[in-house]
Write a structure and sequence with these properties.
CATH topology: TerB-like
Number of domains: 1
Strand content: under 5%
Structural class: mainly alpha
Shape: globular
Number of helices: 9
Largest sheet: none
CATH class: Mainly Alpha
CATH architecture: Orthogonal Bundle
C-alpha cells in the first residue's frame, strides 16, 4: 500500500470523532467517547485505576477498534503503512485520550488473537462486546471509515463487514448504509 494522503487521514480522523449521521443526541462518536475511559487504563497492573475508569466503555473501545482491525486485515495483509495510518487516525480521532503506544499495544494483541483464533472467532468475540443496535451500527461505520484509509472499501472488506453485521444481528443492508454514509461524509 502507498502512504495515504494526509488530507484523507485528516478527514477520516474527523469523521471518526463525530457521531454518525443518524445520531440524535450525541456530540461525539462511540469510539471517542469510549476512548476517554480506555485512555485512563493504566499499563501497570499494580496501580489503582483512577476515578472515571469504566471497564465496559474500555471493552467497547477495544471491540470497535478490533472490528476495524479485522476489516483492515480482510485481504490477509496489514502492512507497515496501513498500520501506521490506522494508529495515526485512531489516536487523532480520540482527541488525546488514547496515545499511540496504547493503540500499538492493542494492535499487537489483536494481531496475536487473530492469529490464534481466526477471523470467524474474533468476529464473534467483537459481537459479544456490543450490547446495543446503535453501537453495532457504529462498529460498521468506524470499520468502513478505517477501510477508506487503504483506498476504499474492497469486496473482501465488505465481506468481513457482512460477517460483523450478521453476528451483530443487523440486516445486511446495514453494511451498505455504513459504506454509503462514510463515502458521503468523506466526499465533503
Amino acid at each position: 500500500m502507498s502512504v495515504p494522503d494526509e488530507s484523507l487521514l485528516g478527514k477520516v480522523a474527523t469523521q471518526l470523532s463525530r457521531p454518525p449521521a443518524y445520531a440524535t443526541t450525541s456530540k461525539a462518536s462511540i469510539l471517542s467517547l469510549a476512548a476517554a475511559s480506555y485512555g485512563w487504563k493504566s499499563n501497570v497492573d499494580e496501580l489503582t485505576q483512577p476515578t472515571g475508569f469504566d471497564p465496559e466503555a474500555a471493552r467497547l473501545f477495544e471491540a470497535v477498534v478490533e472490528a476495524a482491525f479485522l476489516v483492515a486485515n480482510a485481504d490477509g495483509e496489514f502492512d507497515v503503512a496501513e498500520q501506521s495510518a490506522f494508529r495515526h487516525v485512531v489516536v487523532t480521532a480520540c482527541g488525546g485520550f488514547v496515545v499511540e503506544r496504547q493503540v500499538s499495544a492493542l494492535l499487537a494483541d489483536l494481531r496475536d488473537q487473530l492469529g490464534e483464533d481466526g477471523l470467524e472467532r474474533r468476529v464473534q468475540v467483537v459481537a459479544r462486546s456490543i450490547a446495543r443496535e446503535d453501537q453495532a451500527r457504529e462498529v460498521l461505520r468506524v470499520a468502513a471509515l478505517l477501510a477508506h484509509v487503504s483506498g476504499g472499501v474492497s469486496q473482501v472488506e465488505r465481506d468481513v463487514l457482512g460477517k460483523l453485521a450478521g453476528e451483530l444481528k443487523l440486516a445486511p443492508s446495514a453494511v451498505e448504509a455504513a459504506v454509503t454514509e462514510v463515502a458521503s461524509a468523506l466526499a465533503d
